[in-house]
C-alpha cells in the first residue's frame, strides 16, 4: 500500500499568509500541520512509501521538510512530486494531481489518499485494515459533525446503510440530509485506479476528490468507515485558530 498526500492547492482563503507558505506547513498546536498528519500515516504498517504531491511554487519547501522528516525516521520514505503549476489559475485539481502521481510514480498498489489539511484524533491503522479486508472498491473516511446545518455548503455529505455501504454522496449541498461528512480520507483499491482516466476524460469536476468518489458509486462498491474523536478541516482562519488553540492545550507544560 502507498499513501498519497494531496498538497498542491494554493489555500487562497488564507491569503496573505499562504501566498508564499503552503498551508500544510503552517503551525498548529506548536507543530507543522503536515507532521500531525504524517504521524497517522507512519503508524500504518502496510504503507511502504508516502508520496506528497505539491506545486512548483512550494516544491522546495516540501522537499526540505521531507528531508528533515526522513532523517528522523529513515524507515518511512517520503517522495515529493512537483505537478509543475504555479498558481490557483492553472492548478490540476485534486483528481488531476492524483492521476499525475499515479503516472509519475508508476503506482499500481492499493492507495491511502489524504487531503493535507486534515487533522483528526483517530489512528489510520484500522482504516487500512478495513480497506484490505474489503478486497476491492473504495473506502472513505467519514465523521458525524452533529448537525446537518454545519455541513451546508461546506462539506461533502454521505448517506450509508447500517453495514457501511454508501448509497448517496452530495458535494457541499445547500440543504444536507445528514450530518455525516466525508473527511478527505480515501482508500482506493488498485482495481479502482484505471477508472480515474475514464473519469478525467469527460467533463467531470477535477478538483474535490468527492466528485470522483460520487462518480464511482455507479461503477464499484463504495463503503464508509466512521472516524470517532475530533476532526479539523483547516480551510479558514477560524478553523485554523480553533485547531491551534485546542492542540496547544494538550502540550505539556515546560
Quick structural overview:
The protein has 254 residues and is α/β, with parallel strands linked by helices.
Question: Overview of this structure, please?
Answer:
By secondary structure, this protein is α/β, with parallel strands linked by helices. It has one domain: Spore Coat Polysaccharide Biosynthesis Protein SpsA, Chain A, CATH 3.90.550. It is 30% helix and 24% strand. It has helices at 33-42, 59-72, 94-104, 125-134, 148-151, 195-200, 209-216, 237-248; strands at 2-6, 27-28, 31-32, 49-54, 78-82, 111-115, 118-120, 138-144, 157-160, 166-170, 180-188, 222-226, 231-233. The strands form four sheets. It has a seven-stranded mixed sheet with strand order 5-4-1-6-11-8-12, with helices on both faces. A two-stranded antiparallel ribbon has the order 2-3. Strands 7-13 form a two-stranded antiparallel ribbon. A hairpin with a 2-residue loop joins strand 2 (27-28) and strand 3 (31-32). The chain is globular. The N and C termini lie far apart (39 Å). The mean pLDDT is 87.
- CATH class descriptor: Alpha Beta
User: How many domains, in number, for the residues?
Assistant: 1
Write down the overall mean pLDDT. 87
Number of strands: 13
With strands numbered from the N-terminus, the spatial order across the biggest sheet is 5-4-1-6-11-8-12
The Cα radius of gyration reads: 17 Å
Largest sheet: 7 strands, mixed
Strand content: 15-25%
Q: What class, by secondary structure content?
A: alpha/beta
The helix fraction, in percent, is: 25-40%
- Low-pLDDT stretches are none
Shape descriptor reads: globular
- Give the CATH architecture: Alpha-Beta Complex
The helix count comes to 8
Distance N to C terminus? 39 Å
CATH topology: Spore Coat Polysaccharide Biosynthesis Protein SpsA, Chain A
Give the SSE order as H and E letters.
EEEHEHEHEEHEHEEEHHEEH
Q: What is the CATH H-level superfamily? A: Spore Coat Polysaccharide Biosynthesis Protein SpsA, Chain A
